[in-house]
Amino acid sequence: MAAHRLQVENLSFAYGETAVLRGVSFTVRPGAVTTLMGANACGKTTLLLVMTKNLKPDAGRVLLDGRDIAALRLRDFARRAAVVHQKNTAPDDLSVEQLVFYGRTPYGSPFRGRSAEDETRVALAMAATGITDIARQPMGTLSGGQRQRAFIAMALAQDTKLLFLDEPTTFLDIRYQVETLRLIRALNAERGITILMVLHDINQAALYSDEVIALKDGAVLTQGPPREVITEETVFAVYGVRLPVRADGERIWVLPA
User: Fold this and answer.
1) Which residue has the higher pLDDT, 89 or 20?
2) How does strand 194-198 pair with strand 162-166?
3) What is the domain partition of the chain in residue ranges?
4) Rounded Cα gap, residues 120 and 190, in angstroms
5) pTM for this prediction
């Protein structure tokens, strides 16, 4: 399965009279990890919700392999793209394996049981995320990092080549943040999955992304490799604070002081 081509064309969206997205346009590089960054209320999460058919744009369109996603049924879209939301919920008594099996919903019906393909995809998803050993555990007993891996496994069970992640490190301590981001990079490298994620931490965006899209006031300010996008000028333009940016070879980081 080849990587999907994802394009956003002149996208606009408002909550009532409050404009949130203003003519947003960009292309996500197939097979890359792309991060949306920007200040609070700049439109990052709203943009992700529009791109995943959770919200309908007021103008513009989102193209997946050249086709407007508005023309795709939810089931058809779910066979092409998987989403891990910022606030994931599941019943405490639901087992990890049962949760991951929900990722197979786009391929089945409520009137049939689990197929051999379902079993295989779920097993592969749990192995890829390192949660096979906790498959029988209830979700209510998991740590934050384990829960995040379980939800990523559910998305992987959809067997798509496009993965959306809304702030995947939120509510996690630094250990689980690093583990989650390393997992995301590994899935991209090993499976060729195109990943678009929202991150708050600029340094995490710099370290774990191939490309960064900086948003300001509901529009794209700039897009490109982290070294080109994450500059002192861009940080000031996006966040309104002057911070030093340092470089060591290809790696860059912002000093939060």
Assistant:
1) 20
2) parallel
3) 1-81+161-257, 88-159
4) 18
5) 0.93
